[in-house]
């Protein structure tokens, strides 16, 4: 039993229980061994009487023979049925021999929930995340597989690796022997790649002798790498982002295999790859408009079936990036080649890859010091095409057709300097929109120059970050002294509150301030929180709670907007707390309390008593 007690001490949230309580649990715990194919419980059977924790091995939770969750060591399951007292919504099937589970009786589990708030919060949060996560359509199952399946769960192509000094003729022989269409080339800690296409284009087409060429001379460096623990969805997005067909997969520093697009497609997940390929080769606004409508339907479907808000944001961003890049190419076809380098940037929620379904376009343009008339014409045509496709206009006119958001590099430097030196409300608003910028079309170098300039200016200003932080504490979460929800008393949104203004914005803005303060280059709020944790700015516990609170708020907003769209309404940011379940209300209150704690942290760190 000592072994089981130690296991619980290392398993969240049991490790938050008092040590004596964990020791006491040992008398109630059962350890059971299962073999591959064993069914622990079936979908629709009587409500469960045990909580299950995976000690070793793997378990699939399936609905209608489709994978919903892939559980591994430390994962907990069965609590949805225990808490709801309903039959299980999934079938639990063992998929690996020598799988061991720890089983805790329902009565003891419920006693722990009533005694320990933090322990209970974990399960209510997890329950809320799963309430809407049972897929309903084939498309939804494909999305869920991409998220729940890890790259290492896929059978990867075994890598053929050769030294950089290898003669190409020898590498070709090895490729034929291994029946491989590529080989990896190692140079110190870096890897490159040679494909059949490289050999045809770089050697055969030029009538070169492969016996006189070293592999390093024609290899492409570096290859794009990814950890084997990443979700398959991330691999798919990375392929789409870089326009590549192969990813090198690593476990730590060790290359374990190569994932290619054919392998992913064979895993029933070609939707986004197919869509992006169609976007990239579209020849007109009409074609893109058709693809845009398909993309919007898939996004709404993903939200309604419980797709994680972080992945929804990245999914929307990846699709929109390709639409915008293709529109920039069509625009150049119409107005001619640009006279100098330029970059189209997305800013605001687009820049963070956190768009909601109430989306509009926020973009800006930077170009070298020439071609003012060209870029004026270019920008108008570009925005007109986006509008034709279906992108809504920005109500605040934050678009490159507005001269204010279209400047030369030097003029942007001056404008950023003015914002930082004079942080009045209008400038702080512009900063909040602009400082999450990233490139979607054109020169990446211009964006990097701009980012370096921002970093330098922020470092030299003593008042800028406190002013920015004061915006993050301006709007308090809508909880009364007695912890009831504060809602609109009259008007169109009576009985509701603005979840963006009072919940999402304080997190985004506060995290943005700390990101600038600590020279973090990531733009996504989820990723920024993790980076702040890794730098020691947040404790592991605080980062986890803040991230999950933010995730829950984003999920509520997305779900509400998806329902509005399905009902033919215009989506907004207002939430009616009275229609939430009891569990959701509890989690929402906990989330708001965590945001209040975050605001106190910012208030003290930046001495904001002087800004009130």
Automatic annotation (TrEMBL):
GO terms for molecular function: [protein-PII] uridylyltransferase activity. This is Nucleotidyltransferase substrate binding domain-containing protein. Keywords: CBS domain. Residues 13-130 form the Cyclic nucleotide-binding domain. SUPFAM superfamilies: cAMP-binding domain-like, CBS-domain pair. It comes from Thermodesulfovibrio obliviosus. It comes from the Bacteria. CDD domains: CAP_ED, NT_GlnE_GlnD_like. Gene3D superfamilies: CBS-domain (3.10.580.10), Jelly Rolls (2.60.120.10). The keyword rRNA processing does not apply. Pfam families: CBS, cNMP_binding, DUF294, DUF294_C. InterPro entries: CBS_dom (IPR000644), CBS_dom_sf (IPR046342), cNMP-bd_dom (IPR000595), cNMP-bd_dom_sf (IPR018490), Diverse_CBS-Domain (IPR051257), DUF294_put_nucleoTrafse_sb-bd (IPR018821), GlnD_Uridyltrans_N (IPR005105), RmlC-like_jellyroll (IPR014710).
């Amino acid at each position: 039993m000592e072994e089981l007690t130690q296991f619980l001490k290392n398993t969240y949230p049991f490790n938050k229980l008092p040590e004596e309580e964990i020791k006491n649990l040992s008398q109630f715990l059962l350890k059971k061994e299962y073999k591959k194919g064993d069914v622990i419980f079936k979908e629709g059977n009587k409500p469960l009487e045990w909580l299950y924790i995976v000690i070793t091995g793997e378990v699939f939770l399936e609905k209608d023979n489709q994978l919903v969750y892939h559980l591994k060591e430390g994962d907990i399951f069965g609590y949805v049925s225990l808490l709801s007292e309903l039959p299980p919504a999934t079938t639990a099937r063992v998929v690996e021999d020598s799988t061991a589970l720890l089983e805790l009786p329902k009565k003891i589990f419920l006693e722990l929930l009533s005694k320990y708030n933090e322990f209970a919060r974990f399960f209510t949060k997890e329950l809320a995340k799963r309430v809407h996560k049972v897929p309903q359509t084939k498309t939804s199952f494909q999305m869920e597989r991409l998220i729940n399946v890890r790259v290492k769960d896929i059978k990867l192509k075994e890598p053929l690796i050769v030294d950089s000094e290898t003669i190409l003729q020898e590498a070709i022989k090895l490729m034929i022997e291994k029946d491989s269409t590529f080989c990896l080339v190692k140079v110190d800690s870096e890897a490159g790649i040679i494909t059949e296409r490289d050999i045809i284009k770089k050697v055969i087409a030029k009538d070169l002798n492969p016996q006189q060429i070293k592999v390093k001379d024609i290899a492409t460096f570096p290859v794009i790498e990814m950890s084997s623990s990443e979700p398959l969805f991330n691999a798919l997005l990375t392929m789409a982002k870089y326009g590549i067909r192969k990813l090198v997969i690593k476990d730590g520093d060790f290359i374990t295999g190569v994932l290619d697009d054919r392998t992913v497609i064979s895993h029933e997940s070609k939707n986004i790859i197919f869509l992006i390929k169609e976007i990239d080769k579209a020849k007109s606004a009409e074609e893109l408009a058709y693809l845009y409508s398909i993309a919007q339907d898939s996004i709404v479907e993903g939200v309604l079936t419980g797709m994680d808000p972080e992945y929804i944001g990245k999914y929307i961003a990846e699709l929109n990036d390709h639409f915008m890049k293709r529109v920039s190419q069509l625009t150049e076809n119409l107005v001619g080649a640009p006279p100098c380098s330029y970059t189209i940037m997305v800013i605001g929620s687009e820049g963070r890859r956190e768009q909601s379904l109430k989306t509009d376009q926020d973009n800006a343009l930077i170009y070298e010091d020439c071609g003012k008339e060209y870029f004026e014409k270019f920008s108008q045509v570009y925005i007109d095409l986006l509008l034709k496709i279906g992108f809504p206009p920005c109500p605040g006119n934050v678009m490159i057709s507005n001269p204010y958001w279209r400047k030369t590099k030097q003029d942007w430097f001056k404008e950023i300097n003015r914002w930082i030196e004079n942080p009045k409300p209008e400038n702080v608003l512009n900063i909040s929109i602009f400082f999450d910028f990233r490139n979607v079309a054109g020169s990446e170098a211009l964006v990097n120059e701009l980012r370096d300039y921002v970093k330098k200016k922020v470092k030299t200003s003593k008042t800028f970050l406190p002013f920015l932080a004061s915006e993050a504490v301006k709007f308090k979460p809508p909880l009364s002294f007695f912890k009831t929800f504060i809602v609109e008393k009259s008007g169109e949104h009576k009985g509701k509150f603005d979840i963006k203004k009072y919940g999402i914005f304080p997190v985004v803005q506060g995290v943005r301030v700390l990101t600038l303060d600590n020279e973090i280059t990531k733009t996504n709020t989820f990723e920024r929180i993790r980076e702040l944790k890794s730098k020691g700015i947040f404790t592991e516990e605080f980062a986890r709670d803040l991230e999950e609170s933010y995730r829950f708020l984003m999920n509520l907003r997305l779900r509400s907007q998806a329902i509005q769209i399905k009902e033919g309404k215009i989506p907004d940011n207002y939430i009616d707390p009275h229609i939430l379940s009891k569990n959701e209300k509890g989690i929402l209150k906990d989330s708001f309390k965590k945001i209040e704690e975050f605001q106190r942290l910012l208030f003290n760190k930046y001495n904001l008593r002087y800004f009130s």
